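This part of the workshop introduces the protein records we will be handling. A record pairs a protein's sequence with a compact description of its fold. As an example, a complete record with its sequence and its structure tokens follows.

_____
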Amino acid sequence: DSMLNESQAFCVLLAAGQGSRFVSDTPKVLHPFCGKPLLVHALLAAKNARIPVVVVVSNTNAHNVIQTISSFVRIDRDGILFCEQPEQLGTGHAVYMARTVVPDTFRGDLIVSYADNPGVDSDLFSQLRAFHKNERDKLGDSYFATILTGSRAAVGLGADAYGRIVRSRLEMNRVIDIVEKKQIDAMPPESFRIYSEDNNSRWTKDELFNIDEFNSGIVIAKSDLYFKVLSEIKPSQTRKEPPKYEYYATDFVSYSSNSHCVGALQLPNDQLSKLEGANTLSELLQLEQKFLTIL
């Protein structure tokens, strides 16, 4: 706790996803990648960016996780904390779990990142923090969060499925919503979304679908406000039969855009490969080959 109060930021690393398409007895985040478990790459990126505390949100196999990574990092010295998300209730719920290990008095920033994105490095975290600080210095306390984004066209294959970044038509540097692909698919053909906080701007289903800017899922935000907003989010139905509900972390934008400003840092196209992940074991091996050639 003492490490956190003195510092300006902590990182929440989401490591609870089952990786259902990852057919293996080893949890996805513990799979070796270029000689280290995926999770260790993420921990080192945060450490090298001088983020003093990292909260790892895992499912109930935290013991297994701790054992595997303890030969690569010093858990106590490196400020690594663990909390569990026993039920998979979505990313919003996973991040909220981190609240259990963070002191209520903490007023600094929180960075949400993923344990299975080995290309996310300290430089990326530093860029995001610098941009966020700069915006807050310009806009004051109403500036709340910065989302890391990219261009779908530049990513190509698979970018269809990414959440879309809806920017204000009044102030282009302001984000008013993140719309998931599932949500766009569920809209009737002629329908549209209206944003009252953006002078009632209207977005048709096609316009939303065609937005090029995507959400990477990585975000930096004022932690106390972020947790407060997450606690207000209502679950979205993600499956009809049998019914399944999840809390989307991305809903934090629409829940806060009336009162606070959310911005976005679009990553240059030549850095987008840093965001690549893998859903299957063979994709992970391909990604590893790619990294070994870069390195």
